[in-house]
Write a structure and sequence with these properties.
heterodimer, A: 351 residues, alpha+beta, Rossmann fold, OB fold (Dihydrolipoamide Acetyltransferase, E2P), 6-stranded mixed β-sheet, 5-stranded antiparallel β-sheet, B: 306 residues, mainly alpha, MetI-like fold, two-stranded antiparallel ribbon, 72% helix
């Protein structure tokens, strides 16, 4: 099912949680609503579910305007952050509950529930109570309960944040698998960029209730349209250098302590800009145009990182193991084409 | 040096301090009170219940055995007291619990001015059962009482609540139900407020009606709390006395027909001066309450699923 959001706004007495959102969610895809805490992504989800009324604007499921439709009529399955499994019911009863409300006969709903339990791999725990399950298993039960009524849209609110690190990786792949098996249009909320990058078909990046950018995960990383997008994605984070474009069209640090030659001239000069350099976007070699001093070098697992200094600016970059440089050395480097972005300082927009 | 330390330690441990008896000194004021006013009377009353013709002043008695028990179980007034108490408990506890659940659920809504309603419902808790009993006595009055006046609007004929022996117990039960509700509502309301509202959101997304939510979510999650109020209310209803006394000006019903367990104990002790009978009746009441409590605790433990 395709979801269209048209100038959707949600105002609370003292804040605007979602500000004039217009976008489309692709049918049958897994979309992540990504953003820092308080950016309005959960509000967005609750409006899609129908739990929160919209202040302004419209939501369309295919061609139906569902803006004022109560949650039970929208055909959405919702998985809560802490699962909200009914503690007094067994796993089977929990999964059955949505069908029990729809007055589906008992034999049929038990059969369907068992099918769902099998899909999410909890079929051996049907008689247990939620508290007898691990967090990951509870999550699976919650997903089965959301899926049993064959929703048009599956919504997951921070589905992995209550799990420990190892389970999280396992569960995110499970969510991916379940989504691909069922082909249900799925939207999930997360503040973890790695989570969003690893399993979603596309990412909606939000900040302060405003839609920053929607794109495929890799495209969002490779081609951010705003300094916030560039900074939010990527670990280690992008290096942001403040400065101006000099007369030659190159980047000059604010205190004029260094100039970095840009591969791509934007045809502007004198403007205040932010130069974003991804850690992997430099090449070191002799006779390159920019000098940098190595401040520190360290290894994090398989990665070789270094803190370097260009003029007065400090950067964290990847250094190939082939380069035999150590602390205090001065190296020559050049920027690559990919992973280097120029943003307008005032608006933050990509130049 | 070491000797000095040893010495000073020894000196401080002289007397009762720093021995295993020391905590007893601090506990003594409380323990003495409990022993004098609870433990001693409890065991003494067991003894007295076996002493026939026991006299309070001299401590003399005629024989030691089950005579008092034989007497009360052949006393029609005691049998009547058992029946009345059972009927009172049987009606008051379930009805007041059900009504309290209904009102607690209403009081748990987020609406304007809910504080006023909550206060109004809890107010009876801070009033005196005797004073309110006198008001109810007036309300039950068959000529000028408001209850008959209201029933009259629906065409119900005048009921002699406090005069007709057959109606006496119903007057007591109605008053008892009303009297028990505030406490029950408070406990149930606190139980309701402990239920995560997310369960209701989840149920709403699935389209559960409020009826369905109430019976499939609220009641099961509240079951332990309901069980708790049932135990407490059964115990307190078994001891009904304060409600009875003002309604009939100190008499147990119009024609001595409405003895309750505690009224029987009071009557044998204070009016008839048969201390042995009063003691035996007390022990029977204790056993009944004890057994009820055990059953309830067992059921409640099997009920609690989370």
């Amino acid at each position: 099912m395709q979801i269209k959001i048209d100038h959707l706004t949600k105002k609370f007495p003292d804040t605007t949680a979602v500000d004039d959102f217009t976008m489309e969610f692709e049918s049958g895809k897994l979309t992540a609503l990504l953003g820092p805490s308080g950016c309005g992504k959960s509000t967005m989800l609750n409006m899609l579910a129908g739990i929160l009324p919209a202040t302004d604007g419209h939501i369309y499921f295919d061609d139906d305007d569902v803006t004022d439709m109560p949650p039970q009529k929208r055909g959405v399955g919702l998985v809560f952050q802490n699962y909200a499994l009914y503690p007094h019911m067994t796993v089977l009863e929990n999964i059955c509950f949505p069908l029990e409300i729809q007055k589906v006969n008992k034999a049929e709903r038990i059969e369907k529930a068992k099918e769902m339990a099998k899909l999410v791999h909890v079929d051996q725990y049907l008689d247990r109570k939620p508290k007898e399950l691990s967090g990951g298993q509870q999550q699976r039960v919650a997903i089965a309960r959301a899926l049993i009524k064959t929703p048009r849209l599956l919504l997951l609110d921070e589905p992995l944040s209550n799990l420990d690190a190892r389970l999280r990786i396992e569960m995110r792949e499970e969510i991916r698998r379940i989504q691909q098996e069922t082909k249900v249009t799925t939207i999930f909320v997360t503040h973890d960029q790695e989570e969003a990058m690893s399993i979603s078909d596309s990412i909606v990046l939000m900040k302060d209730g405003i839609l920053m950018q929607v794109d495929k995960p890799q495209a969002l990383y490779d081609d951010p349209n705003h300094t916030f997008v560039a900074s939010f994605l990527g670990n280690p984070p992008i290096n942001n250098l403040e400065g101006i474009i000099n007369d030659a069209g190159d980047f000059e640090l604010k205190d004029h302590s260094a100039t970095i030659k840009l591969n791509e001239k934007k045809g502007i000069k004198g403007e205040e800009v932010i130069l974003g350099i991804r850690p992997e976007a430099i090449t070191i070699g002799p006779d390159f145009n920019t000098k940098a001093e190595i401040l520190e070098r360290y290894t994090m697992g398989k990665e070789e990182l270094a803190n370097i200094k260009i003029g007065s600016a400090e950067l964290r970059v990847y250094i190939s193991v082939d380069h035999d440089c150590k602390k205090g050395d001065v190296i020559d480097l050049v920027l690559r084409n990919k992973g280097v972005f120029l943003f307008d300082k005032a608006s933050g927009k990509r130049l | 040096m070491a000797e000095a330390v040893l010495k000073s330690k020894k000196r401080s441990s002289s007397g009762i301090f720093n021995t295993k008896w020391e905590p007893l000194i601090y506990l003594a004021p409380f323990l003495i009170g409990v022993i004098i006013f609870t433990l001693y009377p409890f065991f003494n009353i067991i003894l007295i219940s076996f002493k026939e013709g026991y006299r309070q002043m001299t401590g003399a008695f005629q024989s030691f055995g089950f005579d008092n028990y034989v007497h009360i179980f052949t006393d029609p007034y005691f049998i009547n007291a058992l029946k009345n108490t059972a009927m009172y408990v049987g009606f008051v506890v379930p009805i007041s619990t059900a009504l309290s659940l209904f009102f607690a659920n209403l009081l748990n809504q987020k609406i304007k001015g809910i504080g006023i309603f909550q206060t109004a419902f809890f107010l009876p808790m801070v009033t005196s059962v005797t004073a309110i009993g006198l008001v109810w006595k007036l309300m039950f009055n068959d000529r000028i009482g408001v209850i008959n006046a209201m029933l009259g609007l629906f065409g119900v004929e005048r009921i002699e609540w406090l005069l007709d022996p057959a109606m006496n117990i119903w007057a007591l039960i109605i008053y008892g139900i009303w009297n028990m509700m505030p406490f029950t509502i408070i406990i149930l309301l606190s139980g309701l407020q402990n239920i995560d509202p997310l369960y209701y959101t989840a149920a709403k997304v699935d389209g559960a009606s409020s009826r369905k939510q109430f019976f499939r979510i609220t009641v099961p999650l509240l079951a332990p709390t309901i069980g708790l109020t049932c135990i407490i209310n059964m115990i307190s209803a078994s001891k009904v006395f304060g409600e009875l006394f003002p309604l009939f000006s100190g008499r147990p019903g119009t024609a001595y027909n409405l003895f309750t367990m505690v009224y029987y104990i009071y009557y044998e002790f204070n009016v008839a001066r048969h201390l042995g009978y009063a003691a035996a009746a007390s022990i029977i009441l204790f056993i009944i309450v004890f057994v009820f409590t055990m059953i309830q605790l067992y059921v409640q433990r099997r009920w609690r699923y989370y």
